[in-house]
Amino acid sequence: MREDNFRKLAPYVPGIQPRFADMIKLNTNESPYPPSPKVIEASERFNAADLRLYPSVDVGPLRDALAEYHGFDRACVFVGVGSDDVLATIFQACFNSGRPLLFPEITYSFYEVWARLYNINVKKIPLRPDFTIDADDYTGMENGGIVIANPNAPTSIAMDKGEIERIIKNNPDSVVVIDEAYVDFGGESVLGYVDKYDNLIVVRTYSKSRSLAGARIGYCIANPDLIGVIETVRNSINSYTNNRPSIEIGVASIKDEEYFREMIAKVVATRKRLTSELTELGFHVLPSSANFVFAEPPKSVTAAEVYDNLVKKHIYVRHFNIPGIENYLRITVGTDVQVDIMLSEVRKMLGK
Ligand code: PMP
């Protein structure tokens, strides 16, 4: 066959999913805690015989539940198979002008992969030396759209709501996507601006704060016209996206606000301890508003060395071989016990 039949792409590389019984997995920002007992009950109640039927075409019950939870009309909600699916659909639907899509140079690396896949021009904007995002970089430049993760990944740093509003307000002709995958752990959401700005899309996921990465549920909230454009693209590819069990699980999860808040508080408490202990060991830890920290080891070792050493003990963190962040490790906040085991290995390695 001729080579030119095929697309050549550099795909997104997800964190590895090793399968050792004794492993400590701090590499893909999953929750270390199980989902709500209400989710477990819902999955036990699920009648597998119903799988002969297609799921509801617009993710009906889950869309309704999310609309009610966030106080929006159902026409403002779009649900997909994880926020990756939601973001990929938004990229196809909203960035077609030929003008460059703006996003930070260091951010969720899937943005660049989708841009290439869908032939979207890109302009990557450098971060400040302290890894923060300067809103001014996004206010005076012609563009065909803007994507910002808040808090940003893998830096873990959150942006002020007012700064984000400045970006949305100054770009009325293009769609501004705020990816709030980690916002529940300490960022300020801009959901409250959806009614005010018709160019804003806020993307959320069940994968982190709802302990449901395996259920693959993500959604976005925007004005009904934008949601309509996104739905048209989805319905041009695959109209039945979320499966029946995940729809029921998704509804059950948002009915347990107390458990949700409790798990977030646990992660935030462990993050505080992890940050202070790493700092004490000589790491430079960026101020995290997420369920992970981004840290540079002390001078005596490199991030790659720490990574390799931990892997030998079946402890997995994330190391990106990307210029500018090659000496940092992204460490997901695990349970206190997991974090203590990881820290004791690091301590041994540093001879402390
Ligand atoms: N956005 C950001 C910033 C992320 O880090 C991730 C997790 N890899 C996602 C979106 C996608 O998560 P999911 O598809 O599990 O919702």
Brief sketch in words of this structure:
The protein is α/β, with parallel strands linked by helices and 352 residues long.
Give a written overview of the molecule.
The chain is of the alpha/beta class and 352 residues long. It folds into two domains: 3-35 and 258-350, Aspartate Aminotransferase, domain 1 (Alpha-Beta Complex); 37-255, 3-Layer(aba) Sandwich (Aspartate Aminotransferase, domain 2), CATH 3.40.640.10. Helix content is 34%, strand content 14%. The protein has ten helices and 13 strands. The protein has helices at 37-45, 60-70, 82-94, 110-117, 161-169, 224-234, 244-254, 257-280, 303-312, 336-349; strands at 24-25, 77-80, 101-104, 122-125, 145-149, 176-179, 200-205, 218-221, 284-285, 292-296, 315-316, 318-319, 329-332. The protein has a seven-stranded mixed beta sheet with strand order 2-8-7-6-5-3-4, with helices on both faces. A four-stranded antiparallel beta sheet has the order 9-10-13-12, with helices on one face. Helix 2 runs parallel beside helix 7 and helix 8 (257-280) packs parallel to helix 10 (336-349). The relative contact order is 0.17. The model has no long low-confidence stretch (mean pLDDT 96). 4'-deoxy-4'-aminopyridoxal-5'-phosphate binds at residues 82-84, 108, 149, 153, 179, 181, 205, 207, 213, 218.
